[in-house]
Every structure is written in structure tokens, then in C-alpha cells.
Amino acid sequence: MAVPVRLGPAARRELRELGERLREARLRRRLPMDLVAERAGTTRQTVARIEAGDPGVRIGSVAAVLQALGLLEGWGTLQDPVGARLAEEALPARARRRDG
Length: 100
Fold this sequence. Notes:
This protein is mostly helical. It contains five helices and no strands. It has helices spanning 9-28, 33-40, 44-51, 59-68, 81-90.
């Protein structure tokens, strides 16, 4: 039995937006949901859940759909401005960048 996923509003919004962008990409490519599901090795229902932003979908299924649409490359790249700032602040003053 799956454990319910508890997400805050920001995470839910991001999942919905990702799902909307994937749906738009699929439609621009004129690919039916069944074909994307087949290429991703999943079901039409799972693709529909991804497009709806369902937080209970496995991340592997999301990656498979991204790959089926040709959108996987670069997906795992994270922007971490807070981490970058903290790392910069941890440097000795003489080693810090002068522009920021």
C-alpha cells in the first residue's frame, strides 16, 4: 500500500505546472496519450496523472514520459542560489568573488 504524499502548496503548484507543460509538449508534438504511454513503458492513466500533477506518481514514470517526449536532457539540473551563496560566504574574504 502506498504512503500518501504530503506536499505544501508550492510543491503542488510546481507539479501541476510541470504536468501542464508536459501536456502542452505532447499536444504540440501531436502525440496521443496512448503512444506516449507506450513509449514510456507505462499506462495511459499514469500519463494522465502526470499531466494532472498527481504527487503520487513515481519519479521514474515522470522521467520515462520526459524521455518519450524528448525532454529528459537537463531535467535533473537544479538551481541552488542559496547553497551557492552559503558556499561563497564560507570562503575566506580574500577568496570571495568581488562582483557580488
